[in-house]
TrEMBL record, chain A:
This protein's name: Chemotaxis protein
Highest taxon above the source species: Bacteria
Annotated organism of origin: Methylomonas methanica
Automatic annotation (TrEMBL), chain B:
Name under which the protein is recorded: Metallo-beta-lactamase superfamily protein
Phylogenetic placement of the source organism: Bacteria, Pseudomonadati, Pseudomonadota, Gammaproteobacteria, Methylococcales
InterPro entries linked to this entry: Metallo-B-lactamas, ODP_dom, RibonucZ/Hydroxyglut_hydro
Domain of life: Bacteria
Domain Metallo-beta-lactamase: 28-217
SUPFAM superfamilies registered for this protein in UniProt: Metallo-hydrolase/oxidoreductase
Amino acid sequence: MQVNQAKSQFVAVASIAAELSAVMEVAKEISLAAANAKAIAFRAGEKAKGFQPITDFINELAKDTIELVNNINEYAFHLYRLTVNEQRMTEACKRFEKVEQLAAGARYADSLTTSLQEVRLRTQLCHREFILQVSELLIKLADVMHPARAARVIAANSRIEASQAGEYLQSLQAVAESVDNAAQIINDKVHKCRSALTIINVAE
Amino acid sequence: MRMTKIYEGAYQWIMLGRDVHKPEKIIDTNQYMVRTANRCLLIDPGGIELFAPMLAAVLHHAPVEEITDLFASHQDPDIISSLGLWDQALPNAKLHAAALWEGFLRHFGCETIEYVPIPDHGGVINLGAIELQIIPAHYLHASANFHVYDPHAKILMSGDVGAALEAPGMPVFVENFDMHIEKMRYFHQRWMPSNQAKRAWIDRVRKLDIDILAPQHGRMFKGDDVKRFLDWFEALQVGIAV
Ligand SMILES: [Fe+2]
Ligand SMILES: [Fe+2]
């Protein structure tokens, strides 16, 4: 791991963590919007009949997203640990090579060879594990896109249902709007995560 | 890294320091090695920047698998920031360091090495051939701070106590105590926070039979200079920044 590569790996992993916590916030907002919509639809009674099942569905989507992100957070943390380890071992390799050079001719110079080989091997294993985890994380991130995409479709449906809700039109439309926005934001954030990860992959 | 044998018997004490490759802005440090027939203890093994020259020097005396013990007098970076590297180089080593600092020192990386926490009242380091005493020196200057005393070789490794800052390449022993005072005064007045702690340490150390007082910076004191140092330090007011 070169210095710049290590830096970009740290930055990428940190930015994923940041994007994920933003996704979490937005998912919680959706969940709130769903509760809000449910209350309005309840008050609107007959007029918002078509809207009621939609609110439950929105709530489900928010829950799914939160669960997925929780799961992904663990991956992101694991990636961070791997990055720290790899960086430490790379540093150790560099220093051990320096020792070999300085200790040339020393009576016990060879005794370091095993440690050096082991650290090299562990660095490689660690890096392989990192790459593996990145590709798994990419798949998980694709999973988060699904509820977000579904939420957008639902938001479109909600607008149609809202139009039949008489005096509740505006508040229900606002709900649809906020779900749509939230889904769009999640979509963007997840895209950012994916491109951060792709940068790491490309850097290899 | 220059190596100076300071005790030779059934085992050896070697002082390592005065490294000519040391980056300029890094404080110069003395490291100490106690080498028995099949074990090796490194006392205050030093900072990350010093790791390569330090290990390279040690390899003249011991293979990595026989470096079985590390000791850190306190948590400072010049003492032990190399821990994460030793951790990957040494297959079977223990680190003897204050229990109080464990959660802090582990930030440097300590997974292979076994952390042996030293309680506040001190303890021993048993190297088989010789047992060394861990002497409390709390607040001199770190909150949890220890020195190593070898009753057989009569050496007290005194961490930052007795330290002096001077130009690189200075001799390893104090030659003229009176001329050495100015090189120690500010360091002790500024770094040592407590007159009370200082008095407690002096009372304790006066009871030990010491031939060589070996600090982590500057020169070692031997013979009568040890007593001169204790007298001087006793009279010095420390903790001057407040
Ligand atoms: Fe210190
Ligand atoms: Fe120091």
